[in-house]
Known about the structure:
Helix content: 40-55%
Number of helices: 14
Shape: globular
Number of strands: 11
Structural class: alpha/beta
Radius of gyration: 22 Å
Largest sheet: 11 strands, mixed
Amino acid sequence: xxxxxxxxxxxxGGDHGPDVVAPGxxxxxxxxxxxxxxxxxxxxxxxxxxxxxxxxKAASEILHTDVAVRMEDKPSVAxxxxxxxxxxxxxxxxxxxxxADAAISAGxxxxxxxxxxxxxxxxxxxxxxxxxxxxxxxRGESIVLDVGATIGADxxxxxxxAVMGAAMARILFDIERPTVGLLNVGVEEIKGVEQVKExxxxxxxxxxxxxxxxxxxxxxxxxxxxxxxxxxxxxSGNIALKTAxxxxxxxxxxxxxxxxxxLLSKIGYVLAKHAFDTLRDKMDxxxxxxxxxxxxDGVVIKSHGGTDAEGFASAVELGYDMARYDLMAxxxxxxxxxxxGRSAEDESARTTAALAGAAS
Length: 360
């Protein structure tokens, strides 16, 4: 990689398009001066926003297209109408062609995943992708995956998710051997569905040097930060994510209502304003905006569609970290061990079958 990190931006994605993407890029650039951008979308809308900021203008190029994927488009429709020509596809293609180190879109999640699999392709050895989210916890932050890409996963796929999540944690948290847990209905070994119990067995027996497997974790461990990486399949992961987001909004509404109820509570708010500001900052979803599509042969980040410029800047900075510190190489290192374990398991199964056949 060169000294600069080049990010391809789907400028037309999300609820607000270039009006959020451009100022978000400017905020990220101020924090990471070695960023450069390829804005993909309608130049007539993008150009005036970039030209307002001399630093952003100097660090940016525009690839024009007037085709954009709509938020309500089904993935099949997005592929049919936007393949090879939409702002989302062209941003991904820049990663595929190694003209950008990462692609970021606030657009339609299903369309982005479908296009990523067709355009960027899967990493060799990975069967299904996962979306990894940064999760605020009592002790800092954790990574939770999958939060919506793969509905249902077998044991081997969960092991692969663990390897990829640990690679991401090593970059973000600067931990040589991140702790990993499998989300389950209890911590006892007898609990849970067979796929999860089998994944736990594989993670214990194969002794991954890249991660420290701590067994099962429960739903309340997500907020505690019991482990650095929590692994689950996309159905339960997405429910957990949406539940946490809804709970955070609910608590915020409760606090606002309580503060404004009486004169005494308003005075109390003034006296405790610093504490409330700290709480608001901790619960700000913009600071952890951006899900990483793991399992692809390139770095793709999904931003929340309704985020503002500050939130989009967080997604850009996440893409920067994943590219700058070589997420793909770290994933490949972990997968090499996982694939060796899979080959050994397959060989053992073949030997057992052969012995059984001979005995019969």
